[in-house]
């Protein structure tokens, strides 16, 4: 191995994540309230909750992109907020909106991280990038620019870019939104397969009920910044909690009074 190329001394090791009494406020508005949970090494942990409930902020706190108001996140034995932790644990966040560099081709978006961190020579980078693109059926898009991609393709490029980092902790923010049902199922399979093939712990924030209940080992439901419940997917299938049940199995009610108001509006 060329000594110019660096690797974490912890490669091959899987890390759990422990979140303890995490609070986050923006100004005086609390967004996360006393959030505590533990993700075991190698687990797929899904976080579900309505829009605005604090899921993306929570992921950003785990990735140390956001500073918690109080509380702590540990990745294995390391403090997530300590910059040195990023040298020890490879962490990749698949952003909700992709966060690709518009001026770079798909290939260069993927090659950026291994080039900057001198992970391997250019030939090795090419191999990694093309492998990640092939997993997500994106080989033909390698030379395209983000502006030339559909929303779903951007999403897949964002996941491919995370794979190139060979992460030990993978954080996904809505990996299947904007995808057609077949591609959404493929992404769910990829998340599950990656766990089998790599020493990786996955935290998946999602609205996608079938993704969470099919591939997750455990699911947490977050509402209004609080964890309402945590359990195995089968424990949620017959939940009697009305708030959770309404969220997981919403009923479309055309006799809803709100709908009536709309009708009257048109008269
Ligand atoms: N930088 C910020 N400054 C102020 N408020 C913020 C900031 N980021 C998020 N918020 C607020 O925090 C709350 C939670 O936002 P968050 O993005 O975590 O929601 P979410 O659960 O991911 O929703 P969605 O499912 O729509 O993606 C929202 O009320 C949002 O307005
Ligand atoms: Mg979000």
Please, could you describe this protein's structure?
This protein is α/β, with parallel strands linked by helices and 267 residues long. Helices cover 36% and strands 22% of the residues. The strands form two sheets. A six-stranded mixed β-sheet has the order 6-7-8-3-9-10, with helices on both faces. A four-stranded antiparallel β-sheet has the order 2-1-4-5, with helices on one face. A hairpin with a 2-residue loop joins strand 9 (218-223) and strand 10 (226-231). The longest helix has 17 residues, at 181-197. It has two domains: 1-90 and 167-267, Rossmann fold; 103-166, no CATH class. It is globular. The chain is built from ten helices and ten strands. Adenosine-5'-triphosphate is lined by residues 26, 31, 49, 51-57, 96.
List the helices and strands and how they pair.
Layout: E1 17-26, E2 29-39, E3 44-48, H1 55-62, E4 70-75, E5 78-79, H2 85-88, E6 91-94, H3 106-116, H4 122-135, H5 151-164, E7 169-173, H6 181-197, E8 201-205, H7 209-215, E9 218-223, E10 226-231, H8 233-237, H9 242-248, H10 257-266
Parallel strand pairs: 3-8, 3-9, 6-7, 7-8
Antiparallel strand pairs: 1-2, 1-4, 4-5, 9-10
Bound molecules: adenosine-5'-triphosphate and magnesium ion (MG).
């Amino acid at each position: 191995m060329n000594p110019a190329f660096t690797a974490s001394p912890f490669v091959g090791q899987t890390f759990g994540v422990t979140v303890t009494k995490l609070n986050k406020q923006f100004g005086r508005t609390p967004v996360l309230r006393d959030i505590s949970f533990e993700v075991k090494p190698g687990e797929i942990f899904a976080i579900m909750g309505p829009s605005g409930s604090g899921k993306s902020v929570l992921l950003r706190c785990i990735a140390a992109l956001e500073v918690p108001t109080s509380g702590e996140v540990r990745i294995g034995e390391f403090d997530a907020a300590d910059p040195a932790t990023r040298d020890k644990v490879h962490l990749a966040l698949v952003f909700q909106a992709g966060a690709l560099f518009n001026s770079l081709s798909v290939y260069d978006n993927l090659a950026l991280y291994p080039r900057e961190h001198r992970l391997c020579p250019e030939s090795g980078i090419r191999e990694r990038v093309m492998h990640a693109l092939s997993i997500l059926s994106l080989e033909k898009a390698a030379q395209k620019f983000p502006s030339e991609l559909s929303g779903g393709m951007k999403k897949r490029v964002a996941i491919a870019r995370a794979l190139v980092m060979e992460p030990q902790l993978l954080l996904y923010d809505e990996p299947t939104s904007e995808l057609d049902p077949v591609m959404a199922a493929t992404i769910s399979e990829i998340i599950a397969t990656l766990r089998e093939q790599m020493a990786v712990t996955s935290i998946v924030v999602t609205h996608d009920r079938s993704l969470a209940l099919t591939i997750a080992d455990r699911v947490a439901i977050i509402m209004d910044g609080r964890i309402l419940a945590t359990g195995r997917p089968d424990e949620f299938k017959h939940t009697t909690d009305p708030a959770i049940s309404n969220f997981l199995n919403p009923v479309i009610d055309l006799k809803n009074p709100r709908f009536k108001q709309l009708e009257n509006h048109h008269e």
